[in-house]
Amino acid sequence: MTAAVLAEHGPASRRSAWWWVRPAAALGTLAFLVWHLGTAPFLDGLRTVDAAALAAASALAVLTTVCCAWRWRIVSRGLGLDLPLGTAVASYYRSLFLNVTLPGGVLGDVHRGINHGLRAVVWERAAGQVVQIVLTVGVLLVAPSPVHAAMPVVAVGLLLAAVVCGALVVRNRTWRVAGRAWPAIALASAVVVAGHTITFLIAARTAGATAPLSQLLPLALLVLAAGALPNVGGWGPREGVTAWAFAAAGPGASIGVTTAVVYGVMVFVACLPGAAVLLTAHLRHAGAADV
After folding, report:
1. Residue 87: how many CA atoms within 13 Å on its side-chain side?
2. Cα angle at 77 between 72 and 71, to 5 degrees?
């Protein structure tokens, strides 16, 4: 009887444990950084972020969010779903706000998928990550970075993965339809990666990093790639990877953490239109319920 109960509830228990492990790992990373570096880099990040940096981040976020929404619309259309661009932009802003305020960093995307189709959201996010990985590996192959020596192996693995994915696309009708939209998807995704990278570079300069852009660019892409790791509202792995990368490259772990904090604040402020979308939807539903 006990074995049967454990077998029945085992997967659910493992999922529940994994749900707690993810934020625990992110918070553990932050705790380690505070223990190792103190609170000064974090406080410096909050102190040094200024109105100019926040305005730049907000402007860049408009561009990247519209491109993300356009990418989502292209993927949805390929899957037979009609998604107006205005609706996509509003929903994407709401998704981004939920991602940076809730644990896990993906609950906004889950909410978006429930409202507009999970398959389209999964495909859209996957397409964006593929383009980001390709661009990141391409830059890290030629630019000096803490992971430069490992990049040839990573590039070969990426090439093999591309061959396998290409074969699957040829055999799957739905994937062939989506495949024809890849040029537009790749363009939108490249603009998104560029926008996020510029935002990070602005954060680095605001934090006081004086290294040349040729040194900061690969570090920025490396840190942005870490955004896919389990986090708490975007925090945790980003600060850990930034501290490690900046320490290994020369600027130092402290300036890396300060840069990550400035970037986190900039991203949060840039996503605030999503809060307005949430509030508007709530007021609309409340008004409809009163009628």
Report:
1. 10
2. 20
Q: What is the pTM of this model?
A: 0.87
* Model confidence pLDDT, tens digit, residues 40-97: 999 999 999 999 999 999 999 999 999 999 999 999 988 888 899 999 999 999 999 9
* Distance from C-alpha of 200 to C-alpha of 278, rounded to nearest angstrom: 27
Cβ burial, residue 133 (10 Å; 0-12/13-18/19+) = middle
Please report how the helices 107-116 and 118-142 are oriented relative to each other, as an axis angle in degrees rounded to 10.
Answer: 140
232 forms beta bridges with 103, 235
Report yes or no: 280 and 287 within 8 Å, Cβ to Cβ.
Answer: no
Give residue limits of the domains in the chain: 2-290
- From CA 76, how far away is CA 69, in angstroms rounded? 10
